[in-house]
């Protein structure tokens, strides 16, 4: 959890300064999620299972109030504000962790009335941290500098089946500047540095596009882009070429040990699909495809976990044809290798095809 504090704090500040209110709210919401989880007693004490669920929910929400509390600013600039935020999060863990450990036995024997006041203490302390964080972020939004500019435009693209709400993403190479387009493809970024920039745009269902733009200081610059729809890869960054978030890892892929996990995709019932892997000669690894039925956002307690089916793809068997169904509603592609995913294959392409594959 601690590893999320700095990147999400910096990204929230960047979004507040350059992006739309909706996009800024997305990043701030993610940051607040990490803060609130940190202050939860079972999270801070690293308690899992049924005890975690009970302890986290044994609190009366109507009592979580901060009447008269005056938020404090973590710092006066980016560096001191980040350092102050990280310090405050350490203090929050020190506050909630011993309380969570001390409540374990009382939760097990069902002493809810004894647990609730302690959980409320943690909720109130977490709320104070949230108030301080929001106050700090609000103070860090400065007016654009005289040499900055605005970029406004529209990205025309084709959406993938069931991924219509996943918009195009525009990224400035070598910076932490990026944004999501609106549902109609429009976007606006403000406070940008003038000069030449390299942009990358990705969206599932459209090909990745790279282009260069020259932004003029003190002006609103305009950019309209049409993303190629062929090949209409439903996997974002299927060729591993985009490394905006980290230079040593492709975007949209997460390393878990010796496996690179792709994003979980929703499949449309009765839609035919084709998955193709372009393996490199002599590849020492494989690509695992996993699928299962549709799941609720939160699984009820004591529910039996759904069956997860899988199939490995290799250089000798690099294609999988299938049709979306009740039992094949969610799909994930994983590259199994000790090295980078591009060391195994040039690309992975998931296509929605018009007719069932034969």
Measured by DSSP, the beta-strand proportion falls in 25-35%
Helix count, DSSP H or I runs of 4 or more residues: 6
**Mean of residue pLDDT?**
91
Residue windows where pLDDT falls under 50 for at least 5 positions: none
- What is the chain-wise order of helices and strands? HHHHHHEEEEEEEEEEEEEEEE
Number of domains: 3
Give Rg in angstroms.
24 Å
**In whole angstroms, how far apart are the ends?**
46 Å
The description of the largest β-sheet is: 6 strands, antiparallel
Envelope shape:
globular
What's the total number of strands? 16
Q: Percent range for helical residues?
A: 25-40%
Specify the oligomeric state.
single chain
Structural class: alpha+beta
Describe the structure in your own words.
With 358 residues, this protein is an alpha+beta fold. It has six helices and 16 strands. It has helices at residues 2-18, 21-39, 41-44, 49-57, 78-108, 112-139; strands at residues 148-156, 169-172, 178-180, 186-193, 195-202, 209-215, 220-226, 254-256, 259-261, 265-266, 272-279, 286-292, 309-313, 319-323, 330-336, 345-353. The strands form four sheets. Strands 8, 9, 10, 12, 13 and 15 form a six-stranded antiparallel beta sheet that branches. Strand 2 and strand 3 form a beta hairpin. Helix 1 crosses helix 5 and helix 5 packs antiparallel against helix 6. The longest helix has 31 residues, at 78-108. The two termini are 46 Å apart. The relative contact order is 0.11. The model has no long low-confidence stretch (mean pLDDT 91).
